[in-house]
Task: structure prediction
Amino acid sequence: MDSIKTSLLLLFSVVLLQACASTRVEVQPDPMYAPVDLKESRFQPLNNGSIFQQGRSVRLFEDSKAFRVGDLLSVSLSESTNATKSAATKTSKDDATSIGAGTLLGVTPTLSGNAILNSSLSSERAFDGSGDSAQSNSLSGEITVMVSEVLPNGNLVVRGEKIIGLNQGSEFIRITGIVRPQDVSSNNEVVSGKLANARIFYGGGGVVAEANTKGWLSRFFNSPSFPF
Result:
């Protein structure tokens, strides 16, 4: 009996500690969206004694746009999706079969004057199904990202994240994608809809995010693993 009480006390302590720790959950930076380390040797200019250094040219007659690794680019988030789907199916089928009175050795068996070999079969099947689905999402804002790679065709691979700390919680925006230099405006900005292979994530952590999340036991009862 004492061992059961001890086990229950330990379980309660673990749950209590977990609940206390969950109130201090903060969003941590993701290394996949970290800025490029320009201190690496492959990003250092070559001192060949020339005034002109490749990758460090000054554009006198062009807009100041991102065009090399390490440059910054502003992305205007303007995402909006709406999807609806409906389906309806209805089928029915009726069958009826009647078999007349049979004979046995040329004689129709009767009982109280009624033929006993008369038979009939009938069946009826019906199916009626319908379904509707609707989803709508929108995201707007702005985030500045860094050019992490310049592809051979001149397109820019960009990535970046923004973490905002709020009262007892935090929110984040993470984005990566490929940008054509032609789609970058004169003020060094591109619309998120122009990003190829875009990956945009928006989420948060903390007290509000946890209050909006089902507990592990509720998730189990609503998961495909629950057999009933």
